[in-house]
Amino acid sequence: MGIGTVGDFYVHNRQASGCTVVTIGGELDVATAPVLRTHLDELIAEGHARLVLDLAALEFLDASGVGVLARAMGRARAQDGWTRLTHVSPQVRRVLRITRLTEGLPEYPSTAQALSGDHGGTPARLSPVGGHSSPTNA
After folding, report:
1. Radius of gyration of the chain (CA)
2. 102 class by beta-carbon count within 10 Å (0-12 exposed, 13-18 middle, 19+ buried)
3. Alpha-carbon distance 1 to 13, whole Å?
4. For residue 138, how many other CB atoms are within 10 A of its CB?
5. What are the residues whose beta carbons fall under 8 Å from the beta carbon of 27, sequence distance 6 or more?
C-alpha cells in the first residue's frame, strides 16, 4: 500500500513483523513534505505506530522534510510506538546530524534489524557532525 508518486517523490508501505515499513524515495522537500506528513499522520492515527522508514531511495532532504520526520517520531512515541531509520545515505545522514534529529531516530543497517531492534546489542545513534556512528544505550 502506498500513495504512489508525486513528481520524483514516492512513498510505499508494507506490513512486516507487526510494523509498517515505509519506503520513501526521491526528494523530500517543501513541495512533497505535506504529502508525506499526511500519509504518516494517517498511518499513526490508524494504529500503525511502529515505523521503519527505509530511506535507500531518498535523494534529498530539506528542513521541511526534517520537520515531517520529527513529527512522525513524536506522534509515534505518543502512541507508545517508535520510528527507526534504515538505509540512510551519507547526504541525508548529514542533514539529520546537523539538525540533531539523530538524537531521537536510531539508524539500523538493514530493514530486518530495524524491525527487530537488533543492532548488535543496542541501536546505533547517528553521530554528531564529523563523528562516527557508535552504539549507545537507548
Report:
1. 14
2. buried
3. 5
4. 11
5. 7, 8, 9, 58, 59, 60, 61
Cell, residue 77: 512515541
Rounded-to-integer distance, Cα 40 and Cα 137, Å: 27
Instruction: Look at the pTM and tell me if it is higher than 0.90.
Output: no
pLDDT digits (tens, 9 = 90+) for 57-104: 999 999 999 999 999 999 999 999 999 999 999 999 999 999 998 888
CA–CA distance, 9 with 116 (Å, rounded to integer):
28
What gap in Å lies between CA 58 and CA 86, rounded to an integer? 11
Cell numbers describing residue 18: 507487526
String of b and e for 43-66 (b: at least 16 CB within 10 Å)? bbeeebbbbbbbbeebebbeebbb
Distance CA 26, CA 42 (A): 21
**Distinct helix (H) and strand (E) counts, the chain:** 4, 8
3-state secondary structure of 137: coil
Total count of residues recorded for the chain: 138
Q: DSSP label at 21? A: E
Q: Which ranges in the chain belong to alpha helices (H)?
A: 33-45, 63-78, 90-98, 111-116
